[in-house]
């Protein structure tokens, strides 16, 4: 089966949704000096849309600095009897 290249319209829609959700998230947390929020809502749904749109574009968001290393264990020479 052939993979289809994403169309320009599809990419524009994905980027538009990403920008829209990023704007709403920013506005939901930003409080101007007057102390009155511009928008007041629970940003959970918008955050899920933001995450999904970044994933659709192939962008991975995550914390760096997790110093855990993957360890591959080779048990073929083990004397436990389990192979």
Shape descriptor: elongated
Q: Which percent band covers the strand fraction?
A: under 5%
**Main sheet overview:** none
Question: Helix- and strand-based class?
Answer: mainly alpha
The total of helices stands at 2
Poorly predicted ranges (pLDDT <50, ≥5 residues)?
none
Helix content: 40-55%
Q: How many E-type strands?
A: 0
Distance between the termini: 38 Å
Estimated radius of gyration? 22 Å
What's the order of the H and E elements?
HH
Short description:
By secondary structure, this protein is an all-alpha fold. Helix content is 42%, strand content 0%. It is elongated, with a radius of gyration of 22 Å.
Show the helix and strand layout.
Blueprint: H1 8-29, H2 44-56
Helix pairs in contact: 1-2
Main features:
elongated, 83 residues, 2 helices, mainly alpha
What can you see in these coordinates?
The protein is mainly alpha-helical and 83 residues long. It has a domain of 49 residues. Helix content is 42%, strand content 0%. α1 packs antiparallel against α2. The chain is elongated and about 55 Å long.
